TrEMBL record:
Lineage per the UniProt record: Bacteria, Pseudomonadati, Pseudomonadota, Alphaproteobacteria, Hyphomicrobiales
Name of this protein: Hippurate hydrolase
Highest taxon of source: Bacteria
Positions annotated to bind Mn(2+): C104, H106, E139, H165, H368
Gene3D superfamilies attached to this UniProt entry: 3.30.70.360, Zn peptidases
Length: 396
């Protein structure tokens, strides 16, 4: 099957590379992907799919029915948005929009799913329906939730839904996935300690010292991982910034200190525990110093949970393409977040990583950095995975 699928896709490769580089050169932030969405819709229509635009904002859904009998439907999802990062690759197709670039490979994800739509439309030898879901705003602007709120699975029924992301640092030709929790729930917090401030040299006894409150809070917060979270449950809490006072006034005790940070967890129980303990510790240490604490705690993404049966199906499809030895079906969980988790809460499915490659010396550019670029060499493999999955799932 590997040779037949890749041979089938090979004539599409040059055109898909051109599409990917065009999208890369014209990045758009979440819910602003008007040009990208128009390109996607145009390519889908040219391939003969039914196309619906404006789903959940700038989302696009292409519907393809097989030429064999079958009532099952599956969804394949790719994200389209870029990041607020200034590109420094000096590539001929580098971003033409200062301060915005495709630094996470969503240009490649979109292209691979377009390639799958083209390949399957040219040879729809399966029974059932495929919904090609092009999602806006994965990078923190709630694109998955917006599509779901717009009736994604009611308007475009799916028995299962699958996603794929490039893996920076994973060799070309490799896939990795795991059953169960694979990517973390991501939360952010801001804690503001407020006191009276004062002169740190002559009258510190007349002030309420917010610096001591924040110091004790930051130290105590790390103990939550070791003493409140069950030892077998992974969790991360990190302080990202502490702002207070002025470097120009070293003898002035600040009246306010603001702390920001992030929490990563892999279960709803631990997620709730972390928020509860953070709020309690902020209040306790503020009270101990005679000041106040205000906590803003917000969820960014839910934990991404792969369904066991659909994970096995994803492993099987990838293995048909690259061989069992190239597919890690029990990969370690990742503390990054992904809003495809919302779709997996609505429908069973699985999310897999495809290798984006490494250099000869073993180095690579991570996603969300100004020198990152999606590897065009993996486009046929990504398309091939989607095609193999559809034909496997819908009985080709």
């Amino acid at each position: 099957m590997t040779r037949s699928i890749l041979a089938e896709i090979e004539p599409l490769a040059a055109g898909l590379t051109a599409i990917r580089r065009d999208i890369h050169a014209h990045p758009e932030m979440g819910m602003e992907e008007t040009r990208t969405a128009a390109l996607v819709a145009r390519e889908l229509r040219a391939a003969g799919l039914e196309v619906t635009e404006g789903v959940g904002g700038t989302g696009v859904v292409g519907t393809l029915r097989g030429n064999r009998p079958g009532n099952r439907a599956i969804g394949l999802r790719a994200d389209m948005d870029a990041l607020a990062i200034h590109e420094k690759t000096d590539l001929p197709y580098a971003s033409t929009t200062p301060g915005t670039m495709h630094a996470c490979g969503h240009d490649g994800h979109t292209t691979m799913l377009l390639g799958a739509a083209k390949a399957l439309a040219a040879r729809p030898d399966f029974g059932g329906t495929v919904q090609f879901i092009f999602q806006p705003a994965e990078e923190g602007r709630g694109g998955a939730a917006a599509m779901l709120a717009d009736g994604l699975f009611e308007r475009f029924p799916c028995d299962a839904v699958y996603g794929m992301h490039n893996g920076a640092g994973l060799p070309v030709g490799k896939f990795r996935i795991r059953s169960g929790p694979m990517m973390a729930a991501v939360d952010f917090f801001t804690v503001t300690f407020r006191g009276t401030g004062g002169h740190g040299g002559s009258t510190p006894h007349l002030a309420t010292d917010v610096t001591i409150a924040q110091a004790h809070f930051c130290l105590a917060l790390q103990n939550v991982i070791g003493r409140n979270v069950p030892a077998v449950e992974p969790a991360v809490v990190s302080i990202g910034s502490i702002h207070g006072g002025s470097a120009d006034s070293p003898n002035v005790m600040p009246a306010e200190i603001v702390i920001t940070g992030t929490v990563r967890t892999f279960s709803d129980t631990v997620r709730a525990l972390m928020e509860r303990r953070l709020r309690e510790l902020a209040a306790i240490h503020a009270q101990a110093q005679g000041c106040s604490a205000e906590v803003a705690y917000s969820g960014f993404t839910n934990v991404l949970v792969n369904d066991p049966d659909h994970t096995a199906k994803a492993v099987r499809a990838a293995s048909l393409l690259v061989g069992e030895e190239a597919v890690d079906g029990n990969a370690p969980p990742i503390t990054g977040g992904e809003d495809f988790a919302d779709m997996l809460q609505a429908r069973p499915g699985a999310f897999i990583f495809i290798g984006n490659g490494v250099k000869e010396d073993g180095s690579f550019h991570s996603v969300h950095t100004p020198h990152y670029d999606f590897n065009d060499d993996i486009i046929p493999l990504g398309v091939g995975y989607w095609v193999a999955l559809v034909r496997q799932e819908l009985g080709a």
